[in-house]
Amino acid sequence: MTGTSLRTYLITRLALVLPMVFILLTLVFLLLRVAPGNPIEAALGGHVPAAYVHQIERRLGFDKPLITQYGDYLWNILRGHLGTTITDNRPLSQIIEQNGAATLELTFFAMLIAIVVGVLVGLVAGRYRDTPLDVFGRLFGILVYATPVFFLGLMAQLVFGVWLNWLPTSDQASPLTQALLQTHTNIYFIDAIWDGNWGALWDVTKHLILPASTLGLVTAGVFIRLVRVNVIRTLRDDYIEAARARGIVERRVVYAHAFKNALVPVITIVGLNLATLLGGAVLTETTFNWPGIGHELVLYLENRDYVAVQGIIVVFALVVVAVSVLVDFINAYVDPRIRY
Amino acid sequence: MAASAPAAPRTPYGRARLLALGRATKPIRDASGIARAMFWSGVAITFFFIVLAVFAPLISPYNFNQYKSGGIRFPQLGHPSAAHWMGTTVQSSDVMARVIYGAQTELKVVVIALAMSLTVGVPLGLISGYFGGILDRFLVLIMDALFAFPYLLIAIVIAFLLATSSIGGGILTAAIAITAAYVPLYFRVVRNHVISVREEPYVDAARALGARPRTVIRKYVFFNVVQNVPPIATLNAADAILLLASLGFLGYGIQPTQGAEWGYDVSRAVSDAASGIWWTGLFPGLAIVLLVTGLTLVGEGLNETINPVLRRRRFGRFEFEPVPGPTEEAE
Amino acid sequence: MARSKLRWLLAVLTVAAAATVAVIVATGAYGSANGAKSGAVLVDGTTGTVVNIDPANQYDYDSFTVDLNIFQGLYGFPHGATLQPVLATGCTHSTNLKTWTCNLRHNVKFSNGDPMTSADVKYSFDRVQKIKGDQGIYTLLSYLKSTSVSGPYTVVFHLTAPDSVWPYILSTNAGYVVDKNTFPSNKILANTDTAHMIGTGPYVLTKFTPGQQAVFGLNSHYWGPKPKNGGLIINYYTSSATMKLALQQKTLDMAFQTFTPTEIAAMGKNKSLTVHSGHGVVIRYLVFNVKRPPFNNINVRKAIAYLMPRQTIATRVYHGTVEPLYSMVPKGLPGQYDAYKSLYGASPNLAKAKAAMKGLKTPMPITLWWTPTHYGGASSDEYVEIQRALDASGLFKVTLKSAEWAQYSGALGKVYGAFQLGWFPDYPDADDYTVSFYQTNSFYNNGYSNKTMDKLIAKERAATTDASRYSYLKQMQILGAQTLPTIPYWQGNMIAVSQKSVQGIDSTLDAAYYMRFWLISK
Q1: Which of A304, A315, B144, C354 is the most buried (most CB within 10 A)?
Q2: CB atoms < 10 A from the CB of B117, how many?
């Protein structure tokens, strides 16, 4: 049914968000409570007698019936109380602020590199289809995509860190810089600029180069393929034929008309690939000791700290859902045929 | 409808099938130039790994966890040498043996995962797309929720959960974890295609004639829709290998005693690499890159040939029929 | 026109990007030339995780390492592995060992200037017992009935049972003295609450970024000798490989806990780094559930004891960073006795193992459990070696199974028949390495209960002289080796790696296993 107003579409779309998030939350709860082992045992098993362990578990409410725990869980989330982690006593809000900001910094710069590299190579490959340029471009795209991000990261660390010793291989900043840096936004790049601390800015940038490039390159592989297909598709369109028929110089046809329109779906592509980026961020963060939220999730999962895992997945789910709604919204704004 | 079917009202079923197959693969046989080169080189690479996987016991000089031969232990972290072409690991196993057996593990997991995803995703997509209604809405909701989520996280959570259950860590666990991540994709693609196909006149006509839904789906919708699946399936196989390697790298994959797995080997090699020991990580890593590249080339090649937007037909020499009468000079 | 607008936009973007890059590089060059004076601050790396800094609720080594810099107890290990009074000047006990009276040092100030008195000591102990933190450290004070004060510099502890090792308990973080003015009596301080995390130690916690960094400044009110450095930063890493790279690139001055054996071997060959190694107190041992077949048969356990490949594990898996262990008590602690060596020999003995298994069906299928990450990645290699040794004897057919720590630690003897465990002491004394394992209802649920052993434990706890205590400990070690609830196999060295210019690490490597950062300079 075309012709629905944008507002109706937005409201419908948002209304669908709630069930999605609810389903994800329930799944997370079930998965974690059903899995054997709990964080208390993880912390204390191996040196504290069982009687004490049970005592503590009882005190923390681990023995309440599952339904009660589920109810408490939902009620807390509704109130916005994501809680404090069990294994290291950190408020969830702090984890989201600090580690979320770190992941944001990494994924932002990685996305920047992915877009620049991906779009450029994709445009060239699509424009000069079936020439050596195209072949190299596509092979490059396939190869970087096929390289697991942890393997690429490892090689990068070895080459640039160990053998050439040009760049640091871990953390967001060197220890002293990090100790002295005032945190305002927890995004070190911005904080350094905020304080006018140029030494720190240089340090932070150096630390960003390897992780962001690794993640960015691997993601660029996807962009190359998508942009290339779009360019080819656009170049075949009728209005391009018309432009050529009118006698417009090929170069102008390509740059002024085809490229512009081929890039419109880039927003969608970026949004759709957010999930891939977040997944890749987990591996990149692990390789480079980057204190991001994906990495924290993996660590807390190992320790069965379900308070932490639930909280982080809730945040992940909300971010992913928000971005997908935004992308759908932009698409609907641009192309009225898509609205419900 | 089947306009190119022979005039006889009842075609032998088998022959009709062969014709359909011929029609389906025509684009591949028609492919030209780069697409063709990509497709066939991808096939070659993938075939190479399949051979490695199937004939692993015959090709590999040692078993994947073998640490001695003839009573003498292998060197620990030994350099590549005549006896061990790719060197040895920290547990004194041969790296090349682990790469070869790793191909077996990877392909086993991916084939099982693909089979499971297709068996679950395609029928669900077909039913949901064809019948619509509440079931459709409900399934779309769940699948969309999962689809937007990073594959890796879904797989980690499932692998983690299953590893602690009776199934234990292993090939089946990894396969199920990967399936969970990819079912939404197949569902979505198949469903979207079914929705566009079911409005086609020939499907409408079949329904008007009183054909049961099952027949309509089987005869008309299914083959139409399933054409889309192979390129996606190969690209997903490529993705699945990366996902399996990632799980192995994080420690949620195959247990080392049950089989060799490339991602796990790279994770163990990380600490070696910083000490200048490059062979324990480089070879499994390259194996991942190569196999995924091969599968992607096959997928890309298929995409180029089947996707009409990208397809380029090979044009033969076009012969005009001789026109009787005045010569060509005539106006 | 659209085209020129686009071109203009592109041009502006390119210039802006180039300018940004130029500015960053230029200021970077300037910045690093006039960079922050790193001066005398010591930068240390570690792969651990801090759980809680508040001493009332932590029971793990990494949190303890942080606390060591900020807090102190009545007793401690300031130099070497001998217990010495720190905040106390001495303690006396009643004849029945149930009442302990301790005199406090005068003129000790907290880092915020508050004077330390007996009220703070009572407050600290009451607090631990009241909060009963979920990390379980309060269980160390299970003998403490109450604490009372008698004047500003005297504290009296009333115990429920005789405890000859009470001063050792005072040296653990259950006994750390905190400032009653800044610590709430009924809840735990958040780790980032550096303003209230006040103790009497040589350093002050100035900043804590969870999972990343702990930053320490000097305590200007410290009563003891000034630290040999101007401050301390502990950097946290998740992987030892990244930590090693950071060390090689000189980002870190030193690193302590925990490298893989391969990494240590490689760093030993590195000319610019020094590997410091001393006797350690961490042990690894195999536990049997003595009620679960086939391990309920003592002959099966004996055969495994005869076949344990200690030397292979120490050299092949750990490259000499651990040494073979023949008692649950590690070498370096007084009262240690190599009971397993005298009973089962120093090396594997196939003939005796076969003799022990006579009459039993061989190869006997058994399952050994281990855990992949909690005790380091080399655990996998370790158990593969044990499997190889047992299989090669022809007496056993070993299946290895593993589970992640979170699940493993809850299962132990409840589920497994034979499993890997490691032990890190609450306090460096042979008592902690025997009573915890040999008492009935020990923490790992292995069903072991031996009346003779229980009597020995009671006698040891009530012993009034060192000599008698050590003689009971020796008997406990022998009885343990005879009845085989466990088989110890290695004892780890205390290892730290540093740049060549760093001094003082060797003075802090001893059986107390304290990393005394204040003794280290660069």
Answers
A1: A304
A2: 24
How far is Cα C511 from Cα B153, in angstroms, rounded to an integer? Answer: 43
pLDDT of residue B4: 44
Predicted TM-score (pTM) of this structure? 0.81
Three-state secondary structure call for residue C144: strand
C385 close to C317: Cβ distance less than 8 angstroms? yes
**CB–CB contact A42 C444 (8 Å):** no
- Please tell me the distance in Å from B312's CA to the nearest CA on chain C: 32
Reported as a single tens digit per residue, the pLDDT across A27-67 is 777 766 766 666 677 666 666 777 777 777 777 777 777 78
Identify residues of C whose CB sits under 8 angstroms from chain B CBs.
239-241, 244-245, 248, 260, 262-263, 265-267, 316, 372-373, 377, 380-381, 384, 388, 400, 402-404, 407
Give residue-wise pLDDT tens across range C183-202. 999 988 989 899 999 999 99
A278 CB neighbours in chain B (<8 A) are 150, 153
Report the distance separating Cα A222 and Cα A272, nearest Å. 11
CB-nearest partner of B289 from A143, A275, A282: A143
- For C211-225, give one letter per residue: b (16+ CB within 10 A) or e: bbbbbbbbbeebeee
Q: Which of C36, C238, C444 sits opposite A289 (nearest CB)?
A: C238
pLDDT, mean of residues C90-118:
93
Contact (Cβ atoms closer than 8 angstroms) between residue C308 and residue C484: no
pLDDT of residue B37: 81
Residue C3 pLDDT > 60: no
* Upper half-sphere CA count for residue A280 (Cβ side, 13 Å): 33
In the structure, how many helices (H) and strands (E) does chain C have?
Answer: 15, 19
Q: Which residues of A touch C132 (CB under 8 A)?
A: 56, 59
Tell me, what's the pLDDT at C19?
Answer: 62
- By DSSP bridging, strand C231-236 and strand C254-256 are unpaired
| SS3 per-residue string spanning A113-159 | HHHHHHHHHHHHHHHCCCCHHHHHHHHHHHHHHHCCHHHHHHHHHHH
User: Tokens 């950097």 appear where?
Assistant: C235
Amino acid identity at B111? V
- The total of other beta-carbon atoms located within 10 Å of residue B50's CB is 16
Burial class (CB in 10 A: 0-12, 13-18, 19+), C479: middle
Whether the upstream peptide bond of residue A19 has omega within 30° of 0, thus cis, is no
Q: Quick check: A172 and A291 in contact, CB under 8 A?
A: yes
The ipTM is: 0.80
Q: Which of B150, B246, B181, B147 is nearest to A275 (CA)?
A: B150
The pLDDT-based confidence of A337 (bands split at 50, 70, 90) is low
The backbone torsions φ and ψ at residue B163, rounded to the nearest 5 degrees and listed phi first, read: -60, -30
Alpha-carbon span C79 to C204, nearest angstrom: 21
Helix H or strand E segment including B21: helix B13-30
Q: Kindly tell me the burial class for residue B196, based on how many C-beta atoms sit within 10 Å of its own C-beta (0-12, 13-18, 19 or more).
A: exposed
- Reply yes or no on whether the pLDDT at C41 is more than 90: yes
Q: What is the pLDDT of residues C317-364, one digit of tens each?
A: 898 889 999 999 998 888 899 999 999 999 999 999 999 999 888 899
pLDDT in tens, A236-245: 776 667 767 7
Region of residue C401 (phi > 0: left; psi between -120 and 50: alpha; otherwise: beta): beta
- C229 contacts C508 by C-beta, under 8 angstroms: no
Given a cut of 80, is residue B147 above it in pLDDT?
no
Residues B261/B253, Cβ–Cβ less than 8 Å:
yes
Q: Which helix (H) or strand (E) holds A225?
A: helix A198-236
Does A270 have pLDDT greater than 90? no
Alpha-carbon distance of C346 to C348, in angstroms, equals: 7
| Average pLDDT of the segment spanning B98-103 | 90
